[in-house]
Specification:
Elements: H1 3-20, H2 31-34, H3 65-78, H4 82-97, E1 101-103, E2 118-122, H5 129-179, H6 184-190, E3 206-207, H7 212-221, E4 226-232, H8 233-239, H9 246-257, E5 260-266, E6 270-277, E7 279-285, H10 287-297, E8 313-315, H11 332-346, E9 357-361, H12 363-380, H13 387-394, H14 396-411, E10 418-419, H15 421-446, H16 448-461, E11 475-476, H17 478-482, H18 492-504, E12 508-513, E13 523-528, H19 530-536
Parallel strand pairs: 1-9, 2-7, 2-8, 3-4, 4-7, 9-10
Antiparallel strand pairs: 5-6, 11-13, 12-13
Helix pairs in contact: 3-4, 3-5, 3-11, 4-5, 5-6, 10-15, 12-15, 13-15, 14-15, 15-16, 16-18
Length: about 525
């Protein structure tokens, strides 16, 4: 059909409608407003405001040169944000340092910072956060595999030594039986127990899933620290929110400090005292789950104890919408340069069996530190920032000097225990970059309705809002959405707030409904904009 034919067809159809369906009288004034959604004239919906504040893009200059090429190569080949790989590498390296080296940020004070870092990468499923973190964990995995092989051989030798010692004891027992009557003193000497061979212990680097009791046992063998790595951290965080898990939560909170002891007392296990609990942590989490967790953490829930705020290396980068085909070999030279750093730091030794190396700033770096610290401390003591963000930023007191020490041990390990201004400047640049990501993270608490509205709008657009038979709904009550248990929308009140905001922007219309046939308190129902219904279909 040509365009001319189509125009003629539309004209004939309009004339037929006018003859068969004559115009109705105008509705009484105000009727349309009294019957929401019945007028048939919906306003053009207005886009929701962006619920996520902008974040600073990652700059390769934030990393030491030895790590820069490898991080960029992984991100490029996987088509994922370099933020993911950068955080993974820094946390992994910090776990090798553990409590073996510490920094004293003040020139005359004995305040000590342990550089064990906690990293959290936020991204929806499918953005390659888990594969990227796995790549950054590869050097530690290799170190652990090598350590297991060494331990296996040492343990086999130890078992032989134990058997030899057992045979020697039996031989001494027989000899003692022969000479006991003639020389009791010699027999007594032969029966003295010999020192048992010491069982070799394997050095561990990474723990994926362990109870607090098992972690405590492992830290008695690895007193300088371990890395707790979870592909999905939400499960671990929520498990510590359950009743009866207060001890586990306290253990992890102590592990963040990296320099405190902890006693674990259990019936049947006795007492297990860890002289130093030092844990680095790394994992990923989905946006919806972290938003729900943030809201609970700042609303006085079980998670409102500062655990989340300890993830100083928390990044929530923007995801590129365009995919570029990349099929190339890894950059071997960049990989070898980065892995050499891991091999070197694996051999880092503390000052003694019980004391770590102590690092301090050069005079120039010390002046730079105070130039940052004084206005920073003044700001977080004010009332302008949200309390949750203040709690997070206050952990930068540890994060900044810890990063500076990590950079010094990567770039200038032979500087005789001093951190130069170049390393501190890089750490301060990280603080500026990470702050923008923290502001995005805690925006879920500051403007939760926007995030909920965006999530609800996305579900409606995708045709997910259906009844039990899978039929698309043209209207809903908050309870109908809450029972679906979508992230951030699992309760009636958050759904109501999200729907109210969508109504304010024209995507929905509120409709008051009596709670029963006899009247009573009305309940709210929301009609869906026809544009959304078309998209859902």
């Amino acid at each position: 059909m040509t365009s001319t034919d189509w125009n003629q067809y539309e004209t004939m159809a309009a004339q037929l409608d006018a003859e068969v369906f004559p115009a109705l009288p105008d509705a009484p004034e105000g009727l349309e407003s009294a019957l929401p959604g019945m007028s048939g004239t919906w306003p053009e919906p207005v886009p929701l405001p962006d619920g996520l504040p902008p974040v600073a893009p990652f700059d390769a200059e934030l990393l030491p040169e030895a790590l820069r090429g490898w991080v960029a190569d992984i991100a490029h080949r996987m088509q994922c944000p370099p933020d993911f790989t950068a955080v993974g590498v820094l946390v992994a390296i910090s776990s090798l340092i553990g409590a073996r080296a510490v920094v004293k940020p003040k020139e005359r004070d004995d305040w000590t910072v342990t550089p064990n870092l906690w990293g959290l990468v936020v991204g929806r499923p499918g953005v390659m956060k888990s594969p990227a973190l796995s790549q950054t964990m590869a050097p530690l995995d290799r170190l652990e595999a090598t350590e297991r092989e060494v331990w296996k051989m040492a343990h086999e030798a130890w078992e032989l030594d134990c058997k030899v010692a057992e045979l020697a004891a039996k031989a001494n027992e027989k000899t003692a039986a022969r000479v006991a009557a003639k020389d009791p003193a010699q027999a007594r000497a032969l029966l003295q127990p010999a020192d048992a061979p010491t069982e070799p212990k394997a050095r561990r680097y990474v723990v994926n899933d362990a109870t607090v009791e098992k972690l405590a046992d492992m830290l008695t063998v690895n007193p300088w620290g371990l890395l707790v790595y979870r592909d999905e951290l939400h499960g671990l965080l929520c498990s510590m929110d359950k009743q009866g898990q207060e001890g586990a939560r306290g253990f992890y909170l102590t592990g963040y400090d990296g320099n405190q002891g902890y006693a674990v007392d259990r019936i049947g296990r006795g007492e297990s005292y860890v002289s130093r609990v030092c844990l680095a942590m790394l994992g990923g989490i989905q946006p919806g789950k972290v938003q729900s967790y943030v809201r609970e953490a700042v609303a006085g829930g079980a998670s409102d104890d500062g655990l989340l705020q300890r993830f100083g290396l928390a990044v929530w980068p923007d995801i590129a919408r365009e995919f570029h085909k990349v099929d190339q070999w890894p950059d071997t030279q960049a990989k070898q340069a980065a892995w050499a750093v891991f091999e070197r730091l694996k051999q880092l030794q503390p000052a003694s069996d019980t004391q770590p190396q102590a690092w301090r700033f050069t005079p120039e770096a010390q002046a730079l530190y105070w130039e940052w610290a004084e206005p920073f401390e003044t700001e977080i003591r004010g009332d302008e920032l949200h309390p949750a963000l203040v709690s997070h930023l206050s952990k930068y007191r540890k994060l900044v000097p810890a990063l500076a020490l990590v950079f010094a041990l990567v770039d200038t390990p032979d500087s005789d225990g001093v951190i130069h201004d170049a390393e501190l400047l890089r750490a301060l640049a990280w603080a500026d970059y990470l702050r923008t990501h923290a502001e995005r993270l805690y925006s879920a608490a500051v403007i939760p309705e926007t995030a909920g509205a965006q999530a609800l709008l996305t579900k409606i657009k995708a045709g997910k809002l259906t009844d039990s038979d899978g039929v698309l709904l043209d209207g809903f009550t908050p309870r109908q959405v809450a029972v679906k248990h979508w992230a951030g929308l699992g309760a009636v009140e958050p759904v109501r707030k999200a729907a109210d905001l969508l109504a304010d922007y024209g995507w929905l219309e509120r409709e008051a409904m009596p709670s029963s046939a006899t009247g009573g308190r009305p309940s709210e129902r929301y009609l869906i904009h026809p544009q959304l219904l078309k998209r859902g279909q």
